[in-house]
Design a protein that fits this description.
Blueprint: H1 2-5, H2 10-28, E1 38-47, E2 49-54, E3 57-61, E4 74-81, E5 85-92, E6 115-122, E7 128-131, E8 137-143, H3 148-152, H4 157-160, E9 164-165, E10 186-188, H5 190-193, E11 210-212, E12 219-228
Antiparallel strand pairs: 1-4, 1-6, 2-3, 2-5, 5-12, 6-7, 8-9, 8-12, 10-11
The structure holds calcium ion.
Amino acid sequence: MNRINSIYLPSVAIFCLIVTDSVALAETSTKSTSAAPHTIKAQIWVDNWFALYSGNTLIKEDSVPYNTERSFNTELFTFSTTLPAQLSVVMKDFKQDDTGLEYIGTSHQQAGDGGFIAQFLDAQTNELLAVSDDSWRCTVIHKAPLNLNECAHSSNPEQVCKSKIDPEPNGWKDAGFDYSGWPKATIHSAWDVKPHGDFSWLAWKWSAKFIWSKDLIVDNTVLCRFTIPAPK
Ligand SMILES: [Ca+2]
């Protein structure tokens, strides 16, 4: 891990991590071929923001900050990893503050909603390796407003709106973290998510689903864990 600390480019950092792992494996095993890194082609659309991690190493952060109104961009990127890979995603819906509302004080004051879809392909073979679906496990750490109707129509939301805000669980991005108690991701329909922006310009696999936790409106920050399996 010392090598990573002095390098700032995430892709380079990941490569170094893999090199370190590969070296360690070669010393103890003859299976170094199966641990060769794969280049993964990723495509992610989210309403409104995500950050993808391998352990605590950031692979990719949405290029548009989560507090940018109408940040409905798709991110296309590649990264290297050994497979299977256990990865983590932070997803955030846009909100102006801890009330969970957006456009506060205007005629459009509302709670807003979220939504996330992703697919991961082997860059060499184009084999589809993973998609967002209900095999992912997700937990909510920012939930607001709990009193949706009262809050959304309030002229004094900072006083009226109720929230449940928790810290990120310790070590939740670690490979060994036990997230088996987290609920399965909820699959939401395209009708409910209503994907905007460049979503429809890109090809999506039929098996890639819109996911979030249970409530697209009230759940604002969602943490998810998933695995990209080894190619068949
Ligand atoms: Ca939103």
